[in-house]
Write a structure and sequence with these properties.
The complex is a heterodimer of chains A (535) and B (312). Chain A is built from 20 helices and no strands. Chain B has 312 residues and is mainly α. Chain B is built from 13 helices and two strands. In chain B, a hairpin with a 5-residue loop joins strand 1 and strand 2. Chain B is globular, with a radius of gyration of 26 Å. Chain B starts with 6 loop residues before the first helix and ends with a helix. Classes of the chains: A mainly alpha (535), B mainly alpha (312). The interface between A and B is large, with 89 and 88 residues.
Chain lengths: 535, 312
């Protein structure tokens, strides 16, 4: 009898325990999901406010469904069966998207900063580098040329800064398209050289870069006779047409298994054109999206929300990030290398290393607004310059993300196996040679991933920029690094509390979507880099 | 290097090589030291202007004053800002600390590898969204939603700010706590199961207490982050500093307030900012904020180091 009662109570306890476990487990799951789900819902709200999907006609959606979605789905089912084709089609989308962004940046950034100004710096930096490189190429005994290159680059930068005014007079007589040929055509030719040499095989790197430069020159020259804008021709050809021809021919010749995948972007482009024709013919209207071409290319208007745009802010944000990468990348990498490869771990000096590392982790926890005070108190008041300049914004945000860059670079360097270093020492490499030739190339994808992620975060930073006095609403992008700058999140801040619903739910929502998209693009680049090079 | 080299020039070259190595090392060392220079720079620029501020306004007035109207009335009492910050910090902690810990327990003890691989990065996204976007969400979507439940709520209010700041710092709690839970040796869990404990008991009575210091460290870091949070609270909680309402505590959440960070943004955004007392007041608040967050970060670091020693 007693055992029976015991069994029943035990059973009951068992059930209670099980119920308790299940409840606990579901509470935990709900807690894990609640933040993600609420953010997701908020995202849906902001996207639907920005794009207004319900205001479009059903026929419009149907037309694009038939011309784009259906063919793409069809191809997707076909491509999924073959990983080669699948990989190629994803890659070709990436390449297409990449060259379009490259072309837009190559056009807008020189437009904003004045191509001739960039040309001056291009000349003062590249001419000394070229001289040293050519000298080093012809005299293999001169081992110091590698060291000299960064030094002359910095020297050239200073030279350009000091003699800017006198040099600009001479540069002004050059045709605009020749300027673009130099500042865009040459870097792209060199990049193609590097890509053919190190990333993909099958072509002669000298021929590829010479063709790129030669044809771009011809396109520019033809513009004079045929009457089209030579500058646009040079940009368009060197950033989109030639890289695409290069990519397509590379795939057709060297990627026999997956080359069918090249068709997929073509399907999309054809679908868009077909959809445009159909909706135009049948007069079907799409959604009244706040996020349209005008929004991306116009400047802000406080009177008419339909005319308001964010062009100066987007360009401002991009310029800040580009400049920030240039300013902070060498220092971040340098500190990471020192801490991982050189820093003593024991003794008194080891204590100092520990102190530096502790300091870095604490800097990462300093509120961003305090970095604004650093920029204001030390840079602006210390140098006695105007508030709100582009360079100060880049330096301030750069200091803010420096700890993140250092920590992620440290991790990347640490993940290089020690056997690699031993191998290099074994064949007589010095510490610096080992670093330069073995460790850094191996760690570079990881370093770049971490840096790009940090830069992506910096795009959304607002508070430090307000403290250093960036103007919230500005009607033109900054035209130089010592000019007044503006940034996308500042515009969002300025108009988020406008009472009119057209601004609150329309213009600001569209601005938020653009900001999130910029971050998403940078994160996507970082993730692709990581996945591609992950061991 | 080829065989034609005379030994003399080869020696000379290896001399240059060592020089070069030394130069590189010095350059890299400078990069590492640069991070210390930043900290020094922050401290110097804060202290410098704070001294100027305290030469105009007495520290006693600053730290004990209950009115903050720097731009209009020239009143510089920091207490309303500190309490405003505390209200939002407490509000966000109430949301983030339990949720973050629960998420950490789920990810560490319950979730399968596949679920973990999805949920962990998804949680990190919460910390990756710009704070200005969170502020906009709070102002435009969350406050109208709250108005359905609390009709008295104002367009700018501390509650919506607390909610978004809470969401924002969840990953801070969950990821650091999860590391702490993961570091608890499996033998402790096995011992628990060995004496017939359920998973619930093992999780709550063995794993969580064992990782206690790591969890506390994550809490301290998250609270420090909430204190320093700027744009979300500026947009959502508004700019009306006041001392906390005492008997009616709910009112503190439904009405607008101003945090220390928001006050700095307001001053910086004001037109025609010269070398006025208001300008220097920014630095005085800044140093208050810096000392608070910096000491909390150090505290978290200290707790975590203690904890790491435990299972080495």
């Amino acid at each position: 009898m007693e055992t029976d009662i015991d069994k029943i109570t035990k059973n009951r306890q068992q059930i209670l325990r099980n119920i308790k476990g299940i409840i606990f487990r579901s509470i935990l799951l709900v807690a894990t999901l609640i933040g993600i789900v609420s953010l997701f819902i908020l995202m849906i709200y902001v996207f639907s406010d920005a794009i207004n999907p319900l205001s479009g006609e059903i026929g419009w959606y149907l037309a694009y469904f038939i011309t784009i979605i259906l063919p793409m789905l069809g191809f997707l089912f076909y491509a999924l069966r073959d990983p080669d084709i699948w990989g190629t089609s994803i890659q070709s989308f990436g390449v297409l998207f990449g060259v379009i962004i490259l072309a837009i940046m190559s056009y807008t950034i020189p437009q904003t900063l004045n191509p001739y100004d960039i040309f001056v710096y291009f000349l003062t930096i590249s001419i000394p580098i070229t001289i040293v490189t050519v000298y080093g190429y012809n005299n293999p005994k001169a081992t110091w040329t590698g060291t000299l290159i960064p030094i002359v680059a910095v020297f050239g930068l200073f030279l350009g800064f000091i003699f800017f005014d006198s040099l600009e007079v001479y540069v002004d007589i050059v045709e605009e398209w020749i300027v673009y040929l130099f500042i865009i055509g040459i870097p792209i030719s060199i990049s193609l050289w590097i890509i053919t040499k190190y990333v993909i095989s099958g072509f002669n790197e000298k021929k590829v870069s010479l063709y790129c430069f030669g044809f771009t020159t011809i396109i520019g020259l033809l513009g004079i006779f045929l009457g089209y804008n030579s500058s646009l021709g040079v940009i368009f050809f060197s950033t989109i047409i030639f890289p695409l021809i290069f990519y397509i021919s590379h795939n057709i010749l060297n990627n026999k298994e997956g080359r069918i995948g090249l068709v997929s972007p073509l399907i999309l482009i054809l679908g868009i054109f077909l959809g445009l024709t159909i909706t135009g013919q049948l007069e079907l209207s799409g959604p009244e999206s706040w996020l349209n071409i005008n929004f991306l290319t116009a400047s802000f208007s406080s009177l008419n929300p339909r005319e308001a745009g964010i062009y100066p802010q987007v360009i401002g944000s991009i310029l800040i990030v580009v400049l920030m990468a240039i300013v902070i990348f060498p220092v971040g990498i340098g500190a990471a290398i020192y801490l991982e490869e050189y820093a003593p771990k024991t003794g008194f000096l080891g204590r100092i290393t520990q102190f530096i590392e502790l300091n870095i982790s604490n800097l990462a926890g300093v509120p961003s607004v305090v970095y604004g005070l650093l920029g204001l108190g030390l840079v602006i008041n210390g140098l006695n310059i105007e508030r709100g300049l582009l360079l100060v914004a880049s330096i301030t945000l750069g200091l803010l993300i420096l700890p993140i860059v250092i920590v992620s670079s440290q991790e990347a360097i640490r993940s290089v196996p020690d056997s690699f270093r031993q191998g290099s020492y074994g064949v007589g490499g010095s510490k610096w040679q080992t670093l330069k030739n073995i460790v850094l190339p191996e760690a570079m994808p990881g370093i770049l991933t971490g840096t790009i992620l940090a830069l992506g975060r910096a795009i959304g930073e607002t508070a430090p920029l307000i403290i250093i006095g960036l103007s919230t609403t500005q009607f033109s992008p900054p035209s130089g690094i010592m000019e007044k700058a503006t940034a996308l999140p500042l515009q969002i801040y300025a108009i988020a509390s406008y009472p009119q619903p057209e601004y609150r739910y329309g213009v600001v929502a569209a601005g938020v979507v653009v900001l999130l998209t910029l971050m998403l693009i940078m994160n996507a680049i970082a993730i692709i880099l990581r996945n591609k090079y992950q061991r | 290097m080829n065989s034609k080299d005379t030994s003399g020039s080869s020696l000379q070259r290896s001399g240059i090589k060592t020089q070069k190595e030394k130069a590189y090392k010095a350059l890299l060392l400078f990069c590492a030291i640069f991070t210390v220079i930043i900290t020094v720079g922050i401290v110097v620029s804060l202290i410098d202007n704070t001294f100027i501020f305290f030469s105009q306004i007495s520290p006693i007035e600053f730290f004990t004053g209950v009115n903050w109207h720097p731009l209009t009335a020239g009143e510089y009492g920091v207490l309303p800002l500190v309490t405003g910050t505390l209200i939002i910090t407490v509000g966000s902690a109430v949301i983030a600390l339990p949720i973050g810990l629960a998420a950490a327990i789920y990810l560490s003890e319950y979730a399968s590898e596949a679920i973990r691989a999805v949920l962990k990065p998804a949680l990190e996204i919460l910390a990756g969204v710009p704070t200005i976007v969170y502020g906009y969400f709070a102002l435009v979507y969350i406050t109208p939603l709250l108005k359905g439940f609390i009709p008295a709520i104002q367009p700018f209010n501390a509650l919506s700010a607390s909610i978004v700041v809470g969401i924002m710092i969840i990953p801070m709690v969950s990821s650091i706590s999860e590391d702490a839970l993961d570091a608890v040796p499996d033998s402790l869990r096995q011992a628990g199961y060995g004496v017939g404990s359920s998973k619930f008991d093992v999780s709550t009575k063995i794993v969580v207490p064992s990782a206690f210091s790591g969890i506390i460290s994550s809490y301290v870091l998250a609270i420090s982050r909430a204190i320093g949070e700027t744009m979300a609270v500026t947009l959502a909680a508004g700019q009306s500093p006041h001392m906390p309402y005492f008997p009616n505590i709910i009112q503190n959440l439904t009405e607008s307030t101003q945090t220390m960070t928001a006050a700095m943004v307001q001053i910086a955004g004001a037109e025609s900012l010269g070398q006025t007392a208001a300008y220097d007041a920014m630095f005085a608040i800044g140093i208050t904020l810096f000392v608070m967050t910096f000491s909390m970060n150090l505290l978290a670091e200290y707790i975590r180091n203690k904890f790491q020693e435990k299972y080495k």
